[in-house]
Write a structure and sequence with these properties.
The complex is a heterodimer of chains A (142) and B (96). In chain A, 20% of the residues lie in helices and 44% in strands. Chain A has 3 helices and 9 strands. In chain A, strand 4 and strand 5 form a beta hairpin. Chain A is globular, with a radius of gyration of 17 Å. In chain B, helix 3 packs across helix 5. The longest helix of chain B is centred in the last third of the chain and has 24 residues. The mean pLDDT of chain B is 89. The chains are: A alpha+beta (142), B mainly alpha (96). At the A-B interface, strand 2, strand 3, strand 4, strand 5 and strand 6 of A face strand 1, helix 1, helix 2, helix 4 and helix 5 of B.
Chain lengths: 142, 96
Amino acid sequence: MDQFVRSGFVLQDGLVLSVFGDEYLSIIGVIDCVDDIRIEVYKHIPVVGYKGKEPLVQTESYSYNAVLGGVGNILRYDSPHGDIHNPYHHKHVYDVLNGDQDGETIRVDEEGWPTLGAMVLEVSDWYYDNWQTIQQRKTSPN
Amino acid sequence: MGDSIRLADLQVLGADERAQILTRLAERAAQPANGRLDGAVAAIRRFEAQYEMSSAQLSMKLHRGEIRETAEIAKWLFFISVRDRVERKARSKRTK
């Protein structure tokens, strides 16, 4: 996250690491980024072991949702939702700058689901790729 | 130190202090979830009240394409997943 703060993309990291219990930790919060982009993070993380005294953790359930404030969702990665609906890692992609509210759901394989850092990088890349359009929307929102 | 820390605050600590805090949090995580699991269940109940349907009905409607998986719905599904995994783990501990 430090690299994104240094680059100026992330304005404030509001994530909080908490004890959940029953061998779980959680990370929940919002990362505030430039131009009213925010990334909402929900992570549930079991402690799976120790390397010496150092705890080893593995993200189990997660939802990382990037929103362009006042416009809509940019993209979201979710962990499997159970047995009958999207029971695999998946990504929702929205053509947000063209009013897309429904998005497209793309399955992500077991090796392909991102770290939070990779997600922030993807949102950052999207922002800079669409910077001009975003600035134009700000000056003439209709 | 309580049971939580902002990641931004953790980031600025030295490596040793960061490791100590993470170890302490992980050790505390071994305790029963109790109130925090209640928090996840309460979040599920709030969504069920807001959408006027049970979580089971949500699953069927999503499966049939009658409702979209919005960001709000995804949060609901996250808390269901948290509840189910923790309860499953607790059940498997009891049967050992």
